Amino acid sequence: MLQRFLDPATLNAISGLDLIAKTVVDGFVAGLHRSPDFGFSQEFAEYRAYTQGDDLRHVDWNVFARTDRCYLKRYRGETNTQLLVLLDTSASMGYGSQAVNKLDYARFVAASLCYLANVQRDAAGLIVFDEDVVNYVAPSTRQGQLFRLLHAIEKAEPGTRTDFTKPFVHFQNFLHRRGIVIVLSDFYEDPGLIVRTVEPLRYRGNEIVLFHVLDPQEIEPHFRQPVLLVDMENSHQSLEVSPEYARHDYRRKIESHMEALRDQARGAGMDYFLMNTSRPLDEGLREYLSVRRRML
Amino acid sequence: MGFFAPWFLAGAAAVALPVWLHLLRKHRSTPLPFSSLMFFEQRTQSSIKHRRLRYLVLFALRALLVALLALAFAEPYVRRNILPHSRSGEVTVLAIDDSLSMQAGGRLAQAKQMAKSAVAGLHAGERAQVLAFGSRVAAMSEVTDDHAGLDAGIDSIQASDDRTSFAELARSLRSIAQSLHLPLRVLLYSDMQQTGMPTNFNDLRLNADIRLEPHPLADKNTPNFAVENVIVPRRVYDANKTRVLATVAGFGTPKAIRRVSLALNGRVIETKPVEVPENGRATVEFVSMEVPYGRNKGAVTLDSADSLTADDTFSFSVERADLRHALFVHEADNTRALVYVRAALDASGHSAFVLDPATPEQTANLSPAKYAFVVISDAGILPETFEHQLRDYVAGGGSVFVALGHTSAGQARVPVGEQTIAGTRYAGREGDLYQTAASLDTSHPSIQQSNRWDDVKFYRAIRVDPGNARVVARLTDDTPLLIDRQLGSGHILVFASTLDNVDNDFPVHASFVPFLVQTANYLGRLDTGPSSVTVGSFAELRDSQEKGAAVDVLDPKGERVFSFAEATKAQNIQFTLAGFYDIRRPNGRNELVAVNTDRRESDLAPASTETLTLWQNTASGAPGAGGAAAVEQRPLALWWYVMLAVLVLAIAESLLGNRHLSVDKEGA
Question: Are both B61 and B92 inside the same structural domain?
Answer without folding.
Answer: no
